[in-house]
Amino acid sequence: VHRLFDRQLEKARKKSGVVDLMTLGDIVSEAYEQAERDRRRTDRSISLMIEELDQLNGQLEQQVTERTAALRAREVDLETQNARFSTAANNMSQALLLLDGSARLLMCNTRYLELYRLSPDVVQPGCSLVDLLAARVKNGTWIGDPQQYVDMVFALMQGGKPASWLAELPDGRTISVLVHPLPGGGWVTTHEDITERRVAEMRIAHMARHDGLTGLPNRDYLREQLAEKVSQLGQGDGLAVLYVDLDQFKSINDTLGHSVGDELLKAAADRIKAIAGEHVVARLGGDEFVIVQSGVKTRKDTIELVERICDAIRSPFELCGHVVTAEASMGVSFAPDDAEEPNDLLKHADMALYRAKDERRGSYRFFEPEMDARIKARHLMEQALRDAISNGEFEMNYQPIVDLRDGRVTCCEALIRWNHPTLGRIPPAEFIPIAEANGLIVAIGDWVIRQACAEVSMWPPDVKVAINLSPIQLMNPKLLQVVAVAIAAAGIEPSRLEIEITETVLMQNTASTLSILRRLHDLGISISMDDFGTGYSSLSNLRSFPFDKIKIDRCFISGLPTEDDSVAIVRAVVGLARSLRMITTAEGVETLEQIEHVRMLGCNEMQGNFFSAARPPAEVRQMLASGPRRIAKSA
Amino acid sequence: MKATIMSWKGGPGWTGSRAQRDRRTDLVLYFGATDILKSSHCYEDLRAAFPTAHLVGCSTGGQIRGDQILDDETAAVALSFEATRIRIATGEASNLIDSRSCGEAIGRQLADDDLAGIFILSDGVHINGSELVRGVTSVVGPSVPLTGGLAGDGPRFESTVVGADGPPRGNLVAAVGFYGAAIRIAHGSAGGWDQFGPRRKITRSKGNVLFELDGEPALDLYERYLGEEDARKLPSAALLFPLLVYEPGQPGNEIVRTVLAIDRQARSMTFAGDVPEGLVAQLMRGNFDRLAEGAAKAAGQIRANVPPNPDGDEVAILVSCIGRRLLMGQNTLDEIEAAGAELGNAVKQIGFYSYGEISPHAVSGVCQLHNQTMTITTLSETAA
Q1: Alpha-carbon gap: B334 to the closest alpha carbon of chain A (Å)
Q2: Most exposed among A133, A215, B307, B356, judged by the fewest C-beta atoms under 10 Å?
Q3: ipTM of this model?
Q4: Residue A541 above 80 pLDDT?
């Protein structure tokens, strides 16, 4: 019997022990009802629960669907971003490496693989930097201990700051490496091949300190080195600064062209370098070289070096099919005796060079303090020269030129005189070179032209005035204008003007010089070749321009009549001029005998103290006014 | 200790009280229906039989005596201690807000160095049982076992009474303190309910008043699950679906809550203990067999700690939830039998169906108000 029914029986049992069926029925019926209620509740709660769980399930499914869609969208987004990043990374010029906090590869771009010739199979995300470096050691693009390197980078990244360095690869390339820590550990590295940039930088740095033609140190670098050498001088040590100048460079450049001139400089530089050995050799520009001789104990050491250089330059150069000879002039200064400042040492050596060239080409001089004084005097003169025009310190003298046939004055040569208030009368030979060197010659020359034109207007119409033009003046594009204005201002015929040039003029910038001369000639101005026979005496110069007159240099006239060669030369020049329909003027005629000779040799005119020295304008005017003066005929 | 089980069925006198005639009786615990305790001679008869003993009792949702459940008879146990002293304390359960201070007052009355345990009976409807327990333990400390229950009123939830050396009345809390080293108090508490359906979040509540679960009025949920027929029987019908409450992530400290009252206007439900916002709640349902197993488990917890007492009587006070009885109906006896089988034949069983059970938590050991459980307290004395 079921225990519940057992209890129900007990409950329905009367005190007599008899079961009351009515009571039992009620109890059992109640139990059934209760069981049914419980079943209904259970059913209800279970179906409700299923409903609720279904609903919840639906909500969850919906959530999962939505989240999956969102995740997918993010995934697509990330893929796009990754693609963009990857394109950017693979198209950058630098190699890129991304490493995590345990030095494992997150990514690297293709440039990295190219740069270090690595196979993509080796370089996989997740591989360690140590393995990667080991691969580079193996293919020869890196030398070092991978673990040490990784430890070093770790130590650097601990500071949280970026770091950079240059890596020299075994194949000679230079790589700029930049390491930047990443938030949350790891780092990003970029590698850039800067080999070309570095070579260019080094070349630029070299160019800034070296002469492009000879490859020698330039002035700036020389100064640095000189300063360094001076600072290193010990007790009893000395050094010499040798300032070298090639004497013939200018004329070689002019006659044979710049390319030959350049070749000469290169060849000379090579010879100097070969002799100078470990001493510093520099080119300062033009034909100027400087040698810094270290370890000088006595001047004999320097003399020996100087003479060897002179000898070396003296032996002929074979350049572009030309055999060229040159000579070196040198000035030398000594440290610490002459000076200790590099600039002073160079200046002193330059002064000594100046003196050497002044005295004799192909020679050398050591600096002496008096040279400094001379240079200072020159500077003083330069300054005085600047003030001379405005102070009216110049004056013009005129020396007559006489027709040998009738003794008539045909022309007067204008000659400048400078009367300095304290220095007194300064000869043109002293101040003209200075004026030419500093360009004052143009202003002085202009003044002379104006003076001469004004003066000739006061002379008889058949007397001309001759003006000397410096090469510097002929390079001045305003010369023609100056001459034209002076002629117009004086109201004279252009034919009253004669221009004298020396051969040197034709040697410089020939084409433009000739053009100017032609235009002057076209105006009706006569052009004379002055001092013929002393310079180049080039017959081609005579041919290059239709000179009206040749002035035979006084050195030949002074040899007359005793020196046979002088006689021969004068005769030849006169013959030549006659053939070219040029008038000849004998310069520096001092004696009656010489007059007879030059007349006999066929010269047309003569000029010299025998007839008249250069005279002030007033005297000349008076002389010309008094009519033609006959020259005494030979007795 | 000597214990005598007695009963009262309209009088005159208590059946079985003669057995105590020759000895001094220290304490009588009695349990009966509300109207009988309120309006009959039951109490007066008991006082007459035990003029010097402390008389402590309450109304119930059914009395347990031996392996029987009684509705018409009042049940009692008379206890005579060898070495144990007792003290009675009372407090007023005038409204729900004062529950904690009421507990503190009782605690202060009972606190003593050799306080070995407290058995407490409280008004069943005008009390927040959780606060009452907190009040008592805050004074006597957590190491003193506190057991007992809330008085019942059948399935009506209207009026409960408690008596403490006087005629039973409402709004009273009565407690017995046991002192000395001789008393052996053991306890066990278990439910046996099955949780079912979705886990819900308590989204709105205040103290022991629950407004919303997952944003839906709690009463709507209960009405839906009960169906029209059962919903009319609210609030007692809500006992069929107790609420399991626990903190998210701490399912080990779960508490079962049962409904005391509902408010159809506010769509709220008042529980016998706190239902804090933010906690997880899940409906539970009962299966006769597993509820009986729950009762056996509660008894098993006692036997795991305290073996049957060979030196004297051992009495077991069973306090089981009215909800269990409402669900199990005629099968309710199964749980009494199951507990008895576990405790052993020698143990004298008495008890009642309550509106809330008080006992240390089986896992945490903290004294708490339980609902929908079978809570058992055993008393015995060791030989001197």
Answers
A1: 9
A2: B307
A3: 0.79
A4: no
